[in-house]
Amino acid sequence: MATAVTAAAACAQQVQRTVSSKASNSLLAPVARPVAAFRPAAAIAARRAVTLVAQAAAAPVAAPASADASKKSQYALQTLTTWLLDLEREGTIDNELATVISSIATACKQIGSLVNRAGISNLTGLAGETNVQGEDQKKLDVISNEVFSNCLRQCGRTGIIASEEEDQPVAVEETFSGEYVVVFDPLDGSSNIDAGISVGSIFGVYEPSPECRIEDMDDPEAMMQKCVLNVCQAGNELLCAGYTLYSSSTILVLTVGKGVYGFTLDPLIGEFVLSHPDIKIPEKGKIYSFNEGNYNSWTKEQQAYIDSLKDESKWNGKPYSARYIGSLVGDFHRTLLYGGIYGYPGDAKNPNGKLRLLYECAPMSMICEQAGGAGSTGFQRVLDIVPTKVHERQPLFVGSKWEVEYLESVLQNKPAPQ
Ligand SMILES: O=P(O)(O)OC[C@H]1O[C@](O)(COP(=O)(O)O)[C@@H](O)[C@@H]1O
Fold first, then answer.
1. CB-CB contact of 38 with 22 (8 Å)
2. Binding site membership of 60 for ligand 1 (Cβ less than 6 Å)
3. C-alpha distances in angstroms, 320 versus 24, 332, 365?
4. Rg over CA atoms, the chain
5. Nearest-CA residue for atom 9 of ligand 1
6. 147: part of which helix (H) or strand (E)?
7. What is the pLDDT of residues 171-190, one digit of tens each?
8. 328 Cα to the center of ligand 1, angstroms
9. N or C: which end of the chain has fewer CB within 10 A?
């Protein structure tokens, strides 16, 4: 914050200097130049801008009740670090989990800066490799995966890490304590990278399952079995879930099971600062986000659902609006803040849809439920599904509670929710 204010002040002085020099040069200099020569409007606007920046910079963001009440300084900041400390103090999380989350935040800062500079550092385009799903990997898919894995290993608090970009989960030799299981999609929506459209990272943290501790590293086969078993946990076992959006801002949104909090990266101080405390998704919303290009391969119930959203006679003459970036994190973040529904149904080609249960569906469903929304396959609560394999796919419908229930009612031919 200090730097933001000094920056604002410096900018103010800069503008002032410009204004005053111009003024001294023109307005105030005795009758030298006609008034028209100098554009007062710009000066007023500049002064207004400076005031707004100073006011914005000075206004502290509300911190959760647990925040240290003694922090009276107007420069007190609730950062991700201090927020995690508050949660540790109140016993909601332990230090190991706080360390894992901090290491994920570090990875996201690194990935954010790489994404921002992709076009000028030859990081766009394909890596020339394919991942376990047979998809051509982008250079930044591979690099983001490496960055995420490094940070999770180096924090010493993870036991197993499983990436959407890797065939198998990996047991972490560097583990020191905690042994948390972390699943992640290092760069979601990467098909948008080269066009500079928003992308994101998604993650989930599980407790290591007690009956399969990874003691004997000597028997790789047995160890791998235990790794997979540890990772294939239902979403309702998640301790923490989150995503980072790399867009006009870099925003980290997460839950540890006590509401959803959003932190915006302040590039001036390199800290995630609390910007969205206790996010609540609207009960209803008028935006739907589906790739309608797949319409013809959808079930007739799925088609009927989308057709109904466009039928204004059902919605007091105002049909739903369609928004689709083609980047789950971007589409989900908008849905979380504005309400509505994001969906990736199964279809004739991919009966289970495209999205991965562990890395995408479960974490987003936990965040949505924690914000008062819902996450469904259309027939089942996503968080109740126990994965049978690490790269399992599931249809996903996530968003405002009423919207998801309405979708389920159409797909299951049930009466619409009240
Ligand atoms: O192009 P489609 O078929 O609409 O798929 C877009 C969806 O696939 C994703 O890109 C997921 O795939 P990746 O994790 O491989 O990027 C989502 O972000 C997005 O919502």
1. yes
2. no
3. 56, 17, 22
4. 25
5. 189
6. helix 139-154
7. 888 777 778 999 999 999 99
8. 6
9. C
Q: Reading across the β-sheet that carries 396-399, which strands appear in turn?
A: 321-322, 287-289, 341-344, 396-399, 374-376
Ligand 1 near 155 CB (within 6 A): no
Q: Are strands 287-289 and 180-188 parallel, antiparallel or unpaired?
A: unpaired
Sole residue written with tokens 């995408």: 360
Question: What's the pLDDT tens digit per position in 332-391?
Answer: 999 999 999 999 999 999 999 999 999 999 999 999 999 999 999 999 999 999 999 999
Give the amino acid at 238: L
Sheet holding 199-206, edge to edge: 170-171, 158-163, 180-188, 199-206, 240-246, 250-255, 260-266, 271-276
Q: Would you say 63 and 276 are in contact if contact means Cβ atoms under 8 Å apart? A: no
Q: Decide if pLDDT at 62 tops 50.
A: no
Instruction: For residues 48-65, give the mean pLDDT.
Output: 54
- Could you give the 3-state DSSP secondary structure of residue 126? strand
> CA angle at residue 198 from 261 to 149, to 5 degrees?
70
DSSP 265: E
Its pTM surpasses 0.90 = no
What span, in angstroms and rounded, lies between the C-alpha atoms of 70 and 76? 10
Least confident of 91-105, 108-122, 226-240, 284-298: 226-240
Q: Which of 122, 115, 111, 217 is nearest to 170 (CA)?
A: 217
Atom 14 of ligand 1, nearest CA residue: 188
* Burial class of residue 202 in the structure, from the number of CB atoms within 10 Å of its CB (0-12 exposed, 13-18 middle, 19+ buried): buried
Say how far residue 291 (Cα) sits from the centre of its chain: 20
Tokens coding 180: 């948390």
List C-alpha distances in Å: 365 to 327, 382, 411: 16, 7, 19
Mean predicted lDDT score pLDDT of the chain: 86
Tell me the C-alpha distance between 381 and 379, whole Å. Answer: 7
**Cα separation of 116 and 198, whole Å?**
10
Q: DSSP secondary-structure letter at 209?
A: P
Nearest to 62 by CA among 302, 279, 230: 279
| pLDDT interval class at 22 (50, 70, 90) | very low
**One-letter amino acid for residue 39 of the chain:** R
Name residue 245's beta-bridge partners: 200, 251
C-alpha closest to that of 231 among 346, 147, 356: 356
How confident is the model over 388-407, as pLDDT tens digits?
Answer: 999 999 999 999 999 999 99
Q: Is the CB of 326 under 6 A from ligand 1?
A: yes
Residue 206 CB contacts under 8 Å (≥ 6 apart), including other chains: 180, 181, 182, 183, 230, 231, 233, 237, 238, 239
